[in-house]
UniProtKB/TrEMBL annotation:
GO cellular component entries: nucleus
Family: Belongs to the WRNexo family.
Organism: Glossina austeni (Savannah tsetse fly)
Protein name as annotated: 3'-5' exonuclease
Annotated 3'-5' exonuclease domain residues: 49-184
Cited Pfam families: DNA_pol_A_exo1
GO biological process per UniProt: nucleobase-containing compound metabolic process
């Protein structure tokens, strides 16, 4: 893993901005293997199935004695004519060996059990730009009232900058490349040209990549 100089060292440099810029370029140019998820995929599409799975996860969280990290990511369609569409997919991991993919396309409202899981006081949601994701989820599904939920979220990009004393603007792909030496399969990003099977692979990789990133950053927040 590439290491960054401490802030005090950077301030002594004659051109610290150039140094950080060059390091950013090195991160982007780094050639790394792809994230490949090999765990269990639980793919659910109807309200009852999603509710049952979410309630099972909530009960598991209840049995834990410490705050529980939950990696969280969302997908939605986008049109240059009409803008962003309604949230269509939510993916989450409570453990690296199992990724839950909830298809929300045909749901008029979120299952109460899913809302309860996301808002559980012991759950710590983490992801890249996660607060913006939650705001969109709340706009698309008004029953998802945010309350103080955003205060219990961990943005992986912000957290990485705090720990490494960097000032980068991270995507999940670049963050994983920096932290764990892996990249998300870029070919799958153009989902107008790929088959459904590969689209699902991209979604699953996002969920597992976020979980791997938080493991790389450490578990300090679990004891806070």
């Amino acid at each position: 893993m590439e290491t960054f100089k401490r802030r005090s060292d950077r301030l002594m440099n004659n051109n610290p901005t150039r140094e950080v810029t060059l390091k950013r370029e090195n991160i982007e140019k780094k050639i790394s293997p792809f994230v490949k998820y090999e765990g269990k995929i639980v793919y659910l599409t109807n309200l009852c199935e999603i509710a049952e799975a979410a309630d099972t996860l909530r009960q598991w969280v209840e049995g834990q004695q410490v705050p529980v990290p939950l990696s969280f990511d969302m997908e939605w369609p986008f049109s240059f004519k009409t803008g962003p569409g309604k949230t269509s997919v939510v993916q989450m991991c409570l453990e690296l060996n199992c990724c839950y993919v909830f298809q929300l396309t045909n749901l008029r409202k979120l299952p109460a059990a899913l809302v309860a899981l996301l808002k559980h006081p012991r759950v710590r949601l983490h992801g890249v730009n996660i607060k913006n994701d939650l705001q969109k989820l709340a706009r698309d599904f008004p029953e998802m009232e945010l309350d103080d939920l955003k205060q219990r979220c961990i943005d992986l990009g912000t957290w990485c900058n705090e720990i490494n004393e960097t000032g980068n603007r991270w995507s999940l792909d670049r963050l994983c490349n920096y932290l764990i030496g892996l990249v998300i399969y870029r070919e799958l990003e153009n989902r107008t040209r790929i088959k459904k099977e590969k689209e699902n692979q991209f979604i699953q990789n996002n969920g597992s990549a976020a979980f791997k990133a938080v493991k790389a950053l450490g578990k300090n927040f679990l004891t806070e």
